[in-house]
Design brief:
Blueprint lengths: L1 H19 L5 E9 L6 H12 L8 E7 L1 E5 L4 E5 L14 E5 L3 E8 L1
Parallel strand pairs: 1-2
Antiparallel strand pairs: 1-6, 3-4, 3-5
Bound molecules: zinc ion.
Length: 113
């Protein structure tokens, strides 16, 4: 499952940061995930909780902010909101839309104590 390796990757970064700061535990992790990143949010939450069990982030609250997707419609020659990677342009219905943002996933903030 692709969400499990994502969760493990996130936890590795979170733990590395927490250790560098000599934290006792991680209280909150805030992630930003683009709407076009092909990440199942609920699956990621589940995997994060499972993978965090024996880490400094075992009791951390996971907050996920979904960033909207945007694309560039070739026909309208305009930027447009994009709900999914294969979605048509909401203005003209064309599928010639290049995704320009919303594919990213990053750790926005980590709270430790
Ligand atoms: Zn269009």
């Amino acid at each position: 499952m692709h969400e499990m390796s994502l969760a493990e990757g996130i936890l590795r970064q979170v733990e590395a940061t927490a250790r560098r700061e000599a934290a006792r535990r991680v209280t909150r992790v805030i992630l930003e995930i683009g709407a076009l990143a092909s990440v199942e949010i609920e699956a990621l939450r589940f995997c994060f909780d499972a993978a965090a069990r024996d880490t400094l982030a075992a009791t951390a609250q996971l907050e996920i902010r979904v960033l909207p997707g945007r694309g560039w419609c070739m026909l309208c020659a305009q930027s447009t909101p994009l709900a999914a990677l294969a979605a048509p342009c909401p203005r003209c219905g064309s599928f010639q839309v290049q995704p320009v943002s919303g594919m990213e996933m990053r750790i926005k903030e980590i709270e430790i104590e």
